[in-house]
Amino acid sequence: MSDALIAVSETAAPLIGLTEADWVQIQETDAFLAGLAESEGFKGKAGQVLKCPNAETGKPQRAYLGLGDAPGADSFRAAAARLPAGDWRLDRVPAGLDATQIAIAWGLGGYRFDRYKPAKDGRARLVAPEGCDLDLAVAVTHACALARDMVNTPANDMGPLQIETIAREIAEQFGASISVVVGEDLLTENYPAVHAVGRAAAPHRAPRMIEIGWGAVSNPLVAIIGKGVVFDTGGLDIKPSSGMRLMKKDMGGAAHALALGRMIMAAKLPVRLAVLVPAVENAISGDAMRPGDVIGSRKGLSIEIGNTDAEGRLILADALARAAELEPALTLDLATLTGAARVALGPQVIPFFTPDDALADQIAIASVAMDDPLWRLPLWAGYTEALDSDIADLKNDPDGWAQAGSVTAALFLKRFAPKQAWAHFDIFAWNPKARPGFAGGAEVQAIRALFHMIRTRFD
Predict the structure, then answer these.
(1) DSSP character for 48?
(2) Quick one: pLDDT at residue 1?
(3) Is the N or the C terminus of the chain less surrounded, counting Cβ atoms within 10 Å?
(4) What is the mean pLDDT of residues 229-233?
(5) Measuring CA to CA, which residue among 219, 440, 425 is closest to residue 331?
(6) Where are the alpha helices (DSSP H) in 53-181?
(7) Please, which residues bridge with residue 427 across strands?
(8) pLDDT at 258
(9) Looking at residue 384, what DSSP letter applies?
(10) What is the DSSP string of 444-457?
(11) Which residues pair with 15 in a beta bridge?
(12) 104, 77, 84: which is closest to 12 by C-alpha?
């Protein structure tokens, strides 16, 4: 990817951030700007951009960025998308905003997915503003771009092997260890649920369990788990075509886990890291798991399959059980798990679940600090019995009376999670509606807040 963030530029044009109140004062004293703004509809609202052309060349010689009435870094996401190609520099960092977060917002807003259809023009680049930690901003934006590229890439080019390849590249880059268990070896190595979900796929798309290890053994262990279903047909409980259209993004949890791990390693945080990614395709064949089957799990609990389209929680169960064996200080799992989460909070706000109130408070604080919207939902114990099975320890499709699908999914995962601090994030990983700075398609959610939380928790 070409960098949207640069250290220096001799030709950078000034970008001036203005609140709505600032703009009211300026337009009263500058008739030319007032007239230009009126023609362009610029009023200083958050994310609006006003380009002022050079009288000789017609090219922008400076620009104004609206910050609204409550300035936030996300306005700079919009600026990166709306400004023409070229180099830009802030005349000053707006009061109350962090220079590094401005740079990260710019980098996120300048993202493009051009693997199959190259962009015809360049992009707007920002000179690192004064006080910016450019290395950190680049590390975060590169990791986020990697995750978005992975989610945007269709399943024919993003199978279990491709996820493994990316994991190996990250491990090699940062001197981490990596182990991968593939195909029938999953049974030998006690990952029966991962095997059951992925066994119907073609041999070259065989299921696998990926584990990255990094950091000094004396540091506290953080386990990060990501659901890696590269495509979800629904299995024998096949999805309708409308429900299958975006299932290339069902490996969004894996992409997010690898990206968060990459951020942590790039920043050299004082933790020991385990990144666990079960990568499978929920395909249909004569060997596919069936409704009514009972499968095993790494923890030893038997699971009745009520619905083959509730497969993500099965592979996460084995990964969570593996994490528990490592006795981590903190475990975080990320998964595009339920449509019920979208019904509850829509595509832009991500629900999370944890029994740990102190951890929940830390996550909520980080969410606000990073403009990365998260909202805690309850692990409501009253719904636990909806997972009871007559013939197994539990089942993967809860009874309909419980209704709260994202809650019951989280309760299922809780049965396998480590006893130490744990949180589950039911991400969407997608922008269904494009807006300036938020390109339609893959989106990175939760991990900027989680990176901030981990930095703070283990500082």
Answers:
(1) -
(2) 45
(3) C
(4) 98
(5) 425
(6) 75-82, 99-109, 134-152, 160-174
(7) none
(8) 98
(9) G
(10) --SHHHHHHHHHHH
(11) 63, 90
(12) 84
pLDDT value of position 25: 87
Across the beta sheet with 294-295, what order do the strands follow?
Answer: 294-295, 303-304, 394-395
Task: Enumerate the active-site residues.
Answer: 239, 313
Report the SS3 class of residue 7. Answer: coil
SS3 for 353?
A: strand
Determine the pLDDT at residue 2.
55
pLDDT band at 59 (very low <50, low <70, confident <90, very high): confident
Read off the pLDDT of each residue in 373-390 and give the average, rounded to a whole number.
98
How many Cβ atoms are within 10 Å of 136's Cβ, its own excluded? 17
Structure tokens at 129: 């503003």
Query: Using N-to-C axis directions, what is the helix angle for 31-40 and 20-29, rounded to 10°?
Result: 130
- Looking at residue 182, what is its pLDDT? 98
Query: What is the mean predicted confidence (pLDDT) over 30-59?
Result: 88
Q: Is the dihedral of CA 196, 202, 205, 206 positive or negative?
A: positive
Q: What is the model's pLDDT at position 29?
A: 84
Q: In this structure, which amino acid lies at residue 314?
A: L
Nearest of 409, 278, 395 to residue 337 by alpha carbon: 409
Quote the tokens at residue 262.
């990459």
Helix (H) or strand (E) holding 255: helix 252-266
**Gap between the Cα atoms of 354 and 312, Å rounded:** 18
Give me the helices (H) in 16-114, please.
20-29, 31-40, 75-82, 99-109
Question: Measuring CA to CA, which residue among 318, 101, 284 is closest to residue 190?
Answer: 318
> What is the overall mean pLDDT for the chain?
96
Q: How many residues does the chain have?
A: 459
352, 374 Cβ separation under 8 angstroms: yes
Give the C-alpha separation, 373 to 367, whole Å. 6
